[in-house]
Design a protein that fits this description.
Radius of gyration of chain B: 24 Å
CATH architecture of the largest domain in chain B: 3-Layer(aba) Sandwich
Number of domains of chain A: 2
Number of domains of chain B: 2
CATH class of the largest domain in chain B: Alpha Beta
CATH superfamily of the largest domain in chain A: MetI-like
Helix content of chain B: 25-40%
Strand content of chain A: under 5%
Oligomer: heterodimer
Pfam family, one (chain B): ABC_tran
Largest sheet of chain B: 7 strands, antiparallel
GO biological process, one term (chain B): carbohydrate transport
Number of helices of chain A: 15
Structural class of chain B: alpha+beta
CATH topology of the largest domain in chain A: MetI-like fold
CATH superfamily of the largest domain in chain B: P-loop containing nucleotide triphosphate hydrolases
Number of helices of chain B: 10
InterPro entries (chain B): AAA+_ATPase, ABC_transporter-like_ATP-bd, ABC_transporter-like_CS, ABC_transpr_MalK-like, ABC_transpr_MalK/UgpC-like, Mo/tungstate-bd_C_term_dom, NA-bd_OB-fold, OB_MalK-like
Helix content of chain A: over 70%
Largest sheet of chain A: none
Radius of gyration of chain A: 24 Å
Shape of chain B: elongated
Strand content of chain B: 25-35%
Number of strands of chain A: 0
Distance between the termini of chain A: 7 Å
GO molecular function, one term (chain B): ATP binding
Number of strands of chain B: 22
Largest interface: A-B, 20 and 29 residues
CATH topology of the largest domain in chain B: Rossmann fold
Organism (chain B): Serinibacter arcticus
Chain lengths: ~300, ~375
Amino acid sequence: MSAAVTSAPAERTSNRQPGFMKDGRRRSWTSIIVATVLAALWVLPSLALFLSTLRSRDAQASVGWWNVFTDPLNQGWTLDNYTGVLQGQDMGASLLNTLVVSVPATILPIMFAAFGAYAFAFMNFPAKETLFVIIVGVMVVPIQVALSPMLNLLGPNGVGISGQFVAVWLLHTGFGMPLCLYTLRNYMSTLPFSVVESAKIDGASHYQTFWLLVAPMSIPAIAAFATLQFLWVWNDLLIAKLFLLPSNTTVVVRVQQMLGTQGQGAEIVTAGAFISMIVPILVFVLLQRFFVRGLTSGSVKG
Amino acid sequence: MATVTYDNATRIYPGSTRPSVDSLNLEVADGEFLVLVGPSGCGKSTSLRMLAGLEDVNSGRILIGDRDVTDIQPKDRDIAMVFQNYALYPHMSVADNMGFALKIAGKPKTEIRQRVEEAAKILDLEQYLDRKPKALSGGQRQRVAMGRAIVRQPQVFLMDEPLSNLDAKLRVQTRTQIASLQRRLGVTTVYVTHDQTEALTMGDRIAVLKDGLLQQVGTPREMYDTPANIFVAGFIGSPAMNIGEFHVENGAAKLGPASIPLSRETIAGLSDADNGKINLGFRPESLDVSTEGTEGAFPVEVNLVEELGSDAFVYGQLAGGDEVAQNISSGAGQAQVIVRVDPRRVPDKGSRLWVKIRPGEQHHFAAASGLRLPS
């Protein structure tokens, strides 16, 4: 961080020419085209889903969604799918349930993991490296492995909280934490160590150093991981289906239940799925600034 | 205000057998500006960090005043440290940065504000108090780091190469500012640098370290005039001293065709281990241009002349045989000799310049031990 870096943006804007990017490199048409194609491919399913939600059951069952463009008049345009979802399926309650599940299940692992990451990055204790390797190692253990023991532990034979929100919070916290600790610790090790040493001389305790310095400086990484974890918990089907009572169930489980065994209700599923996407999209749009910065911040020091 | 004492302080990093700082004995007087200087890896930063409490002391003691602080937490040592990269808190304003330690200590807000403003006035930072560090220039950031130390009103300032991130011109300015500020505040200061010019210009006393061992402590004048060994002689002074190993014959050192007479005391200081050889040192500015045939004059083949306006330096080789030429070294490298000449009368490239060491300005070191011999 030198004076030259801070004054650079002003020079850039004044020197900007067509055909050049902000950082002065030549614009690459190949990368623009490839990125556009990839973005279109990724958006296509969502677009298809959205168009299908507005078509009648018959239209959905008989012809593909792309007929919208060739034969726009005969698609049986309707809002019935949405009214069907909102009236019959108790979507409001399950949306609320999903929020009740996701928000604590995002905050809790980050809070614990941030404390842990601070310790791994800035404190010395015996077997530090070994412990860290173990934590990184358990990232590969999938939750299926623990389903049966967890049902026993949390169920009526154990703690007896299975079916309640707190059970799901605990599971998401436990299984989300290794990755979170790993990302945050890596981010924190890029922070200048002298800042922590300076705080030590200034008389700050570890607790104060964490809350006043390291946590605010780690906001990009924390926000990035929070986005990931929130999306993961919001879209989770397995844990919610197994560990939540029907009255507490989340929107993803509800959507899955709309589909009957004979394929009936498929038109409502499209609308339900689209409603379940809205909140994650909002979260991503609001936090994407941090998200991108948090992912690149480890490599480029600034 | 307090003195600082290193009493056989030793630091051995885990996994290493050689101490990074080996039995350091050093006393810093109350209000003194002591500069620790040495090449990289010499243990100067480690010594400072031991005093700060950021490194363990494996054996020996460190005292601030009469208090043994060897096992005391950094915050209870009543010290303030300026880091090489300033270690500013990026998300806090300049005022919050400077008042952080006081805030942690639970001082009332009005007192913090008052002390921060006093320090800002001293450092000319008043109009920047509400800015974030990233909106400051390098020099201003450096001053904020200084301000953070001043605000605490500590017993000892510790500075770890605080100028190395500044450009050359600003470094010279800030150097004088820090030195005069320290004299004004009268706070005992331990300052680490690898730059011998900084050491000479700023320090009341200089301590030269090499490989974790203290080589010599003294005022800038002492270090320059009477270096205790070859290392200090070559390290202090710019351009560095010319030092070469020569045969002693008939009470004189043989520099090719020339004989440099040695005093009786110098000869008496030589031992059998020296094998009839002596290290002779002379600074570029201790040479007078002379003529062929003058006693003690020796020839230098001029390779290059560097003109600085106020000075001119001749870079060349000792003439008179390869062995003699190869055995000398200077700031320009092996087999090179540097001579300061009158900038208005510089010799031509490729010419032969006869020079003579000014009486009393030659340094003698034992060939075996490298220690200074009496002259």
